[in-house]
Structures are given as C-alpha cells and as structure tokens.
Design goal:
The protein has 280 residues and is an alpha+beta fold. 42% of the residues lie in helices and 19% in strands. The strands form two sheets. Strands 1-8-3-6-9 form a five-stranded antiparallel sheet, covered by helices on one side. Helix 2 runs antiparallel to helix 3.
Length: 280
C-alpha cells in the first residue's frame, strides 16, 4: 500500500471535479499510477464502489483502504487524496451527486474519518443489484432524451437505498430528528425567508449548536443546503415547464432574477437559458 509521503512525491496537481449539481458517473479500472489530489475537496458528494483490486484514501494523515465490496462516500468540502495501491489494479464505479433532501437520512453511515463514510457489502445479491444500478446511472446520466435525468436520479436513489438497507440499525448513525425537521422545513417552502436563528429556535437549539450539528450530519451548512435545494428545483422547472426565468426565480425564493442567474450559473456552469436550451 502506498504511504502518504510516497503519494506526495508525485506531482501534486489538483484533480478537477465535475460541476456541482450535475449527476455524473463512470466505471474505472486503474493501474497503480492512478492518483487523485483534491486539497479543497469537492462541492458535491462522491461515492465509489470497489469491484476488485485495492485503493487508498487519505483524509489528512488518516488512511482508509478499499477492498472488493467496499463503498465509500466523501462529503462536500472533505480534503482528500486517493490512489490505486502499488501492484494493484483498482476496478471501481464512481459518481458525483447532490443528495435529494429525502436521501440525507439514508446517508447516515459509519464515519471512520471525518468526512469519509464507509460500508462494506458482503451480500452477493445486493452487490449484483448495485452493479446493475450503477450501469443504469452511467447510461442515463449521459442520455439527453426526455426524463433521462430523472431516471439517473432514480438509479442513484436505488444505490443509496440498497446501502441504507444493509446499514440499517447501525447504532449511533441515525439522523438527529432536529436535523431531519430542519431539512423538512427547508424543503417545504422555498420562498419562505428563513434564518439559522429561526430554524434553531424551532428545534430548541442555539444557532451555533444547530449550525454545527447540521454541518456534521448533512455535510453542508444550512445556507448551502437550502441554496442547492432551491437551484435543483429551479433546474427541474427549466427542464419540464415553460415558465420564464424570472418566474422560476420567484418560484424558488429569489427576489432578484439577476442574483438567481448568477447563483445558477455558478452552480451549474451555465446560465438558466443555456441550461434550458439543452433540453429543448
């Protein structure tokens, strides 16, 4: 297994990530010259499912080695590096995604290192279902036909659900009901002005404690999570309705169409108009 010092002897070129909010997946089979270096983490979540071979993650000075059947998720902002182990060929599926609000409770897995979630799957039937779901995810995320994006999200949700089913009952890994309530409030009305202080008061916590607990369990701040939910809903409205950009901005709680366009472009890498055009 490659040590951290050995890893850093290689040129430390930062590895680019897909634009946040765009569901993307692939299947890699990489020899031991493969390495990824992300000193700033990613803005979305990253999942890997190891089919064969071994690879190692570094979270700070901590290591996590992946074997066949291992599933690892990295939360947004987690500084990480990973590489194929020396003498191995690491064969794995991966996907960058932003969870739907309903998925957050299903992503309360064991967290051996801060920001790194891990589950080992040893049920051959579930492993086969996971591979099938990943293949669908890869296919549908590349397809430009109507509803392909929703089909890709369905495949991603199936992956999360199978792992959650395997992981159910793990002591100490249930989403705090106060965090769950805050997620529900955020998703219920995207136009309603909300502050961390108001949400904290609703669940009887101090604002600082609420902010820390939410970030710890969800992986993003309350403000960032709400922004992603609003932008994701806006993307759906652009895809499936004929409402104007100004109307959609108002629908998801932006008072200024200019500010909405700026945030949407930053998140998706293209303006709302350009985003809609690819679905027409």
């Amino acid at each position: 297994m490659m040590e951290m010092a050995e890893f850093l002897n290689y040129p430390a070129v930062e590895t680019a990530s897909p634009l946040p909010g765009i569901l993307v997946s692939d299947h890699y089979s990489e020899a031991d010259d493969y390495r990824v270096h992300r000193p700033r983490g990613t803005k979305d979540w990253l999942i890997t499912y190891t089919l064969s071979g071994t690879g190692t993650y570094w979270i700070g000075e901590q290591q996590w080695r992946c074997h066949s059947g291992d599933i690892v998720v990295l939360k947004p902002g987690t500084i990480h590096h990973y590489a194929t182990d020396k003498g191995s060929v690491w064969n794995f599926y991966w996907a960058h995604f932003v969870p739907q609000p309903s998925w957050i409770n299903w992503l309360t897995w064991p967290e051996p290192h801060p920001g790194l979630l891990a589950v080992r799957m040893d049920d051959s039937a579930i492993l086969e279902r996971l591979q099938t779901a990943f293949r669908r995810l890869m296919r549908d995320s590349l397809d430009n036909r109507p509803y392909s994006r929703q089909l890709a999200l369905n495949a991603m949700e199936e992956i999360i659900l199978w792992i959650a089913q395997k992981n159910r009952g793990a002591a100490g890994h249930v989403l705090d009901p106060r965090v769950e309530e805050v997620l529900g409030v955020i998703a219920q009305d995207l136009k309603q002005p909300l502050s961390v202080a108001e949400l904290a008061h609703q669940v009887q916590l101090s604002p600082s404690r609420m902010a820390h607990l939410f970030k710890e369990q969800v992986g993003d701040s309350i403000v960032a999570t709400r922004m992603k939910i609003r932008l994701r809903q806006a993307a759906r409205l652009l895809e499936f309705t004929s409402r104007t950009v100004t109307e959609i901005a108002d629908d998801v709680g932006f008072q200024s169409p200019y500010y909405f366009t700026k945030q949407f472009t930053s998140h998706y890498g293209q303006s709302p108009t350009a985003y809609r055009k690819q679905f027409r």
